[in-house]
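Field reference: sequence -> structure
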Amino acid sequence: MAIGFSSSHHADLVQRDRHVLWHPFANLALWEREDPPVIASGEGVWLTDVDGHRMLDGTASLWVNLLGHRHPALDRALMEQASLIAHSTFLGSTHEGAILLAERLTDLAPAGLTRVFFSDNGSTAVEIAMKLAFLYQKYRRSKRGKPIPATFFSLDRGYHGDTLGTVGAGGIDRFHQVFGPLVRPSVTAPAPDCHRCPLGLERNSCALECADLASRLLEIHHEDLVAVLVEPLLQAAGGMIVWPSGYLAKIGQTCRNLDIPLIADEVATGFGRTGTLFACEQEGVSPDFMAVGKALTGGYLPLAATLVRESVYDAVREDPGTFYHGHSYTANPLACRVALATLECIEKEDILGAIPAKRSQIQDSWSVLSNVPMVENVRYLGLIAALDLRLKDGSPLRTPAILSAIRETARKTGLLIRPLSETLYLIPPLSVTLAEVRQMADILVETLRESEKAGLFEGRS
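Structure field:
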């Protein structure tokens, strides 16, 4: 039987999908009843399904797409590299693309990050940072005759991936709780979510108290900690939690004072999402480890990287001498070449400089939501916009069937979104035009109006 694309129709493909596929983060019973889009192509910030229906990519294809689909420069880089070689092992050999990309990343990264270890996804990049931090601490503590720590510090509602090390550092119960017996738990502090303060404080007090509480916990546990692991400025999967100003700087300074390594998980926040190339820049924090992924290749290919300080490299070089971790597709030449093109386009197309005007378009469109009782906690960071939904009785809207109906209403109107529990958000490709970002924001407002008319906020599923 020949394998290839065919002229199969939507209903046929969906039915076949249900027989052979298992989708990530899918409520299986609900998925079996849904009628999902079958994506056929993309161009710019638009996706087209097999029926020819066009939709704006409101999540940047799960936060990976920076420059739009079928970007000419990225297409060209991919094809040029494919004409040379698609892959060769990085064990015992090297290639120019990886060298150039590592040089570029260390040039752009916060000061002090001098070495790059490539992998293929964000969870793995964080896991590598955790392992290297352990080896670094093992080396340092052994030299001083001190016990070797084996615990990490992280935040409630944090998400760092789905490999077992990162699950242990994760703080989203519905993702991680079931795997508790398999992992080593972290020391955790409350997420600095000042709208729903875990300490029950007013917003201004919450910002100060959350930072002080995290610092006090670090002081108490610092001898037992391998490293501190955080998503700087934004806890994305945890509900688009935008940190209060100064929180990251406080964590960074405490780590320096106590000599605890800091791991910055910039997988979701890196490459301009928060308004600067890396989120750490906004509060002058230079971590000891930084994990990047997702948008590194503009959303074209799987590639991630862990950046570390030279002192970490020197320690592992000394003992154990070899880092026993690697992947078959480490530093894949296709991905490296496209990543280089992505970084070049970010600079040449002034992608970051255009963000404030595009954010203003969303804010203008969403200003009408200020008096809508089902909407609260509207927030913005870079080109990320989010809001929380409430039922008419005031409780969070978390019913999967209702959220699915809201998502379907948006899709029919021309916008593809994916709610995070009660949180609706837009993370468009950074290349989106002013007109397109306004259209996204307007469609989401209209979706909420239609959902209210349909009685979805009454709480009926």
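Note: The chain is about 40% helix and 15% strand.
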